[in-house]
Each structure stands twice: as structure tokens, then as C-alpha cells.
């Protein structure tokens, strides 16, 4: 539950900034996640959020991602297995973000 | 027949956790479930679905039950191996406030998510709190 769970790498060449999240995201640390997303989106009209090493996330994370998707083009990288795809499709986040799955 | 999930009568002891309904409790609940679910012969894939369904219910309880509560709200999570699968409950003793439309939509989405992850979801609000009961069938 530390800020090191959420990394931000700056935009490079044609690539948008990337927010990399690891571990579990829930109500206890979603504000930190939200802060990093907001910081990334402040400087760019597109961001990529890499969730491929996230071991747990729920609607709290989805709300944070929806908030940032309202103002920024959002790309998501998600694990190939696990319930994150279910979470994205039930919430409709997969319709406002470009989702790529990674093994 | 010897090793099939749920085949033996001596399944794992039921899990029962009682914690304050605060965000920090959510990780504790997941840690207990991550240890308990494999003892009930639940596959990693199913365990992840159950973890999210229970996590979502517990998260809802923390958000909604505590909101405006005048007493300490507690959260109780139970998990039980049945003959055919798992019975899970997430119970809080907070007040179930009538919600503004936005929050209602959010909760609707939470229960749709739970329904997608487990086989049966029953949400019972009462003045004493809210109980979410879930069933997950296991297919050996």
C-alpha cells in the first residue's frame, strides 16, 4: 500500500505516458492510483495504464479509470487471465478505453 | 472419487472473519480468502472470481454502510464449502441509506458484477444492516 505500487513513466517520442500499477488496488489505496492517473493525464491527451501485474482490483479502480477516461484517451493493458476482463465489460470501461491483454 | 473437490465430507473448516468496516480491512479479507480458497479445492481461476465478488460486496459495505453511520460498523465475511460448491456471505451492521441515483447506478453495477462472477447473489437490506449471500458452484 505504498506509492511505489504506482509508477509513472514520461511520454517518449510518439508514445503516451504509461502508468504501471502492481499488487492490489482497493478502497484503501485507490486515491493514490487516482492521483498518479491524474498527474499522467495532466500533461498528455492520451495515457496508457498497465494493469498486467495487478493481482486484484475492483469497482474502486474502475471508477478512477472512468474519471481519467472522461478527459483523456485511455489505453489499458490487462492480464490475459483473471476476472479483470469481466470487471471491464460489466462496467463498460472496455467501451471507453482501448484494451489490450498481455500474458 | 478420493480426491475430487467436495467429494470428501471433511472439507475445510468454514472461514469466519469479523472486522471493522474500514478500507484497511479489505486486504485482510482477501488475505484470509487467498489462504482458505485453495484448501476448499478451488482452482486459481475460480478463486480470483470469488475474491472479486466478495471484495466488491465488502467494498460496497465499507463505502455505503459507514456513510453517515453513528456507530462503529462491522463487516463479517464467511465462506463455507458445501457439497456442490461454496457459500459466501458478506454482512454489515451499518444502515442502508436510500441512495441518490448515481450511487444507485454504481451499486447496480456492483451487483451485476457479482452475478457475473458467482452463480447466485442475494442482497438483503434491513434496518440492522445488509447481508449479501453468494453461491459459487464448483465443477470438478
Which descriptors would you attach to this protein?
heterodimer, A: 103 residues, alpha/beta, Transcription Regulator spoIIAA, five-stranded mixed sheet, 3 helices, 5 strands, B: 140 residues, alpha+beta, Heat Shock Protein 90, five-stranded antiparallel sheet, globular, disordered N terminus
Beta-strand percent range of chain B: 25-35%
Structural class by helix and strand composition of chain B: alpha+beta
CATH class label of chain B: Alpha Beta
Shape of chain A: globular
Major β-sheet strand ordering of chain B = 1-2-3-5-4
- The mean pLDDT of chain B is 85
CATH architecture of chain A: 2-Layer Sandwich
Give unreliable regions of chain A as ranges. Answer: none
Number of strands of chain A: 5
- Oligomeric category: heterodimer
Percent of residues in β-strands of chain A: 35-45%
- Low-confidence residue ranges of chain B: 1-8, 98-106
Task: Please name the fourth-level CATH homologous superfamily of chain A.
Answer: STAS domain
Do you know the CATH topology of chain A?
Answer: Transcription Regulator spoIIAA
Account of the protein in words:
- The complex is a heterodimer of chains A (103) and B (140).
- Chain A has 103 residues and is of the alpha/beta class.
- In chain A, 31% of the residues lie in helices and 36% in strands.
- Chain A has a single domain, classed as Transcription Regulator spoIIAA (2-Layer Sandwich), CATH 3.30.750.24.
- In chain A, strand 1 (6-9) and strand 2 (18-25) form a beta hairpin.
- Chain B has a single domain, classed as 2-Layer Sandwich (Heat Shock Protein 90), CATH 3.30.565.
- In chain B, a hairpin with a 2-residue loop joins strand 4 (120-126) and strand 5 (129-137).
- Chain B is globular.
- Chain B is α+β, with helices and mostly antiparallel strands and 140 residues long.
- Chain B has a five-stranded antiparallel sheet with strand order 1-2-3-5-4, with helices on one face.
- Chain B has helices at 23-39, 44-66, 101-117; strands at 15-20, 74-81, 85-92, 120-126, 129-137.
- The interface between A and B is medium-sized, with 17 and 22 residues.
Amino acid at each position: 500500500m505504498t506509492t511505489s505500487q504506482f509508477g509513472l513513466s514520461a511520454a517518449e517520442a510518439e508514445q503516451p505516458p504509461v502508468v504501471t500499477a502492481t499488487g492490489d488496488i482497493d478502497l484503501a489505496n485507490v486515491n493514490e492510483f487516482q492521483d498518479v492517473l491524474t498527474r499522467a493525464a495532466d500533461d498528455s491527451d492520451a495515457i496508457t495504464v498497465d494493469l498486467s501485474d495487478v493481482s486484484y482490483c475492483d469497482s474502486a479502480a474502475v471508477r478512477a479509470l472512468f474519471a481519467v477516461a472522461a478527459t483523456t484517451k485511455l489505453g489499458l493493458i490487462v492480464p490475459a487471465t483473471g476476472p479483470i476482463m469481466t470487471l471491464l465489460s460489466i462496467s463498460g470501461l472496455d467501451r471507453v478505453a482501448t484494451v489490450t491483454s498481455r500474458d | 472419487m478420493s480426491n475430487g473437490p467436495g467429494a470428501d465430507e471433511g472439507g475445510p473448516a468454514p472461514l469466519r472473519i469479523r472486522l471493522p468496516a474500514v478500507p484497511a480491512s479489505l486486504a485482510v479479507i482477501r488475505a484470509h480468502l487467498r489462504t482458505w480458497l485453495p484448501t476448499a479445492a478451488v482452482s486459481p481461476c475460480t478463486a480470483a472470481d470469488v475474491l472479486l465478488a466478495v471484495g466488491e460486496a465488502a467494498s460496497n459495505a465499507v463505502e455505503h454502510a459507514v456513510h453517515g453511520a453513528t456507530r462503529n460498523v462491522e463487516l463479517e465475511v464467511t465462506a463455507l464449502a458445501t457439497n456442490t460448491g461454496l457459500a459466501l456471505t458478506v454482512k454489515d451492521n451499518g444502515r442502508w441509506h436510500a441512495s441518490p441515483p448515481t450511487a444507485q447506478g454504481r451499486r447496480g453495477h456492483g451487483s451485476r458484477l457479482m452475478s457475473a462472477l458467482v452463480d447466485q447473489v442475494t442482497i438483503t437490506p434491513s434496518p440492522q444492516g445488509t447481508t449479501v449471500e453468494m453461491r459459487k458452484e464448483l465443477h470438478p
